[in-house]
Design brief:
This protein is α/β, with parallel strands linked by helices. It has 12 helices and 7 strands.
């Protein structure tokens, strides 16, 4: 489905993967199949591609190609599903993090403040927790943590207290109800503020940061020496986690050395600075404007 999600930095990702005809590759964020279909075009008859997506809607886009295997799963279970498909190692892994255009544009999924809908926000629609649960069940302290840490919302404490106050009168369930609460609290540019708040809820619902950390650690275990890891991130929280792990081998962002003074890290950064979309790509696909592509090689 071409309108499901336009693949970001497509040629840059393909070049970074350095695809071998007979290689095995993984696209852990299959979505609409934009990146995957192009990877398949570069693979030979004996090549293989494993696609991951926890969103059941993505399964509709699976190509009719015997070289392709689909895992309806969160990418944090990378190793488990690779074993299931008979792979201990793969030659390259691609991750296009964050929320897809499809998820944002389907009103009933509840990801966007642009539509009236129940505040669901689950990427995996079988997941146990929705944004409604968070808004109505979390304590003021927990809400402040979510909005401050995952949305970098400046008035996170005021927002948390207002939510707790309002939910005593009614259950906060829809985007319209939530926007009415947010209205008087908006600081700075409206859409930016709302995007930060909705991002924070989405990350908490889907436990995104912990999933990214687990995925990165497992990537180091399934890539052989010379294997490529290609990651696109869209906001500072994602990018910081990715950058720290690729550069230092940990999430604290501090170098750790072994007894002999050698840095302990599984990857070598190929891109010293992230690759950004061109002005032309941003014009064609405005949603690519915040994308940062980092590439690393297993050492």
């Amino acid at each position: 489905m071409s309108d499901y999600h336009v693949p970001v930095l497509l040629e840059e990702c393909l070049d970074a993967l350095d695809i071998k005809k007979d290689g095995a590759y993984v696209d852990v964020t299959f979505g609409g199949g934009g990146h995957s279909n192009k990877i398949l075009e570069r693979l030979g008859e004996t090549g293989a591609l494993i696609g991951f997506d926890q969103d059941a809607d993505a399964e509709k886009n699976v190509p009719d190609d015997e070289r392709f295997h689909f895992a309806h799963s969160n990418y944090k279970y990378l190793k488990r599903f690779l074993r299931l498909f008979g792979y201990k190692q793969v030659d390259g892994i691609l991750a296009d993090l964050g929320v897809s255009s499809h998820q944002l544009d389907v009103a009933e999924r509840g990801f966007s403040f642009r539509f009236e809908a129940d505040l669901d926000m689950r990427m995996n629609q079988e997941g146990p927790k929705t944004a409604i649960d968070i808004l109505n069940d979390y304590s003021a302290e927990e809400l402040q943590r979510v909005f401050g840490e995952y949305g970098e919302v400046r008035n996170a404490k005021t927002l948390a207290l207002r939510i707790v106050q309002e939910r005593q009168r009614y259950t906060i369930q829809t985007s319209t109800q939530f926007l009415n609460i947010l209205g008087p609290l908006i600081r700075g540019q409206r859409n930016r503020y709302l995007a930060q708040v909705f991002q924070a809820l989405r990350i908490e619902v889907n436990d995104e940061i912990n999933s990214i950390k687990t995925f990165l650690e497992e990537s180091a275990e399934v890539l052989p020496v010379g294997g490529k890891l290609v990651v696109i991130s869209y906001h500072s929280l994602e990018d910081r986690v990715v950058k720290n792990f690729l550069k230092f081998g940990n999430f604290a962002g501090k170098p750790e050395k072994d007894f002999y003074g050698n840095l302990i890290k599984p990857f070598k950064m190929i891109t010293r600075k992230p690759i950004l979309p061109t002005a032309e790509e941003i014009k064609v696909n405005p949603k690519s404007r915040s994308a940062k592509l980092r590439v690393a090689e297993r050492i």
